[in-house]
Amino acid sequence: MTAPHNSPYSSVNQKFQYAELNNHTIALSHGAAAIADAAWSGPRIRNVPGTNSTGSDEWSNLFIAKNANFDTAGLSHDEYLSLFNLAVHNLAVQEYIDFTNAADPSSMDFRKFDRFFESPGLEHRSGEKGGQPTTVFHALRSWVGNGTAPDTLPVEFSGGNGTPYIRNLCPYPAQAKYIGGDVSSANSYRCE
């Protein structure tokens, strides 16, 4: 697909053929146009300088300015660009390189500390069809702090009729198998 000469929004609903997808034809959605517009436009000030902000810019506040009360809404365009350049060129390379870059291609240390839990049906937000993990942070804290790796992660979700269900996610490749009892109870399943 070639970039449109104007705004990507002018190509919404137009169909494009992708060689990478076996010449499959796909219509450009409004969301894809928004992503293209953001990528082509580069960084922008999230809020108009001098206006009240209803949200916060945690990355700028906590990682760049190291001040939870830092106000990005009060920045001029030039101040914002300086802050952005500081983050990209200095902090990203010097201060945060250890956890943002994979400089060592060996993943053996990570493999000693990884565990994958699939949550079937969980979409990108809670309240969907799949189970929302409820104790992930607690499990991670116990694992890092005490060396206690989680055997399961509990999830909660509602059935089609509103019945609450509790299950346990199993570490991959194991799956929860029904062993009998109340189908809404985690005790009725075992990781196999």
Automatic annotation (TrEMBL):
Keywords: Disulfide bond, Hydrolase, Serine esterase, Signal. Belongs to the tannase family. InterPro entries: Tannase/feruloyl_esterase. It is an enzyme of class 3 (hydrolase). Coiled coil: none annotated. It holds the Pfam family Tannase. The keyword DNA damage does not apply. GO terms for molecular function: carboxylic ester hydrolase activity. This is Carboxylic ester hydrolase. It comes from the Eukaryota. Its EC number is 3.1.1.-.
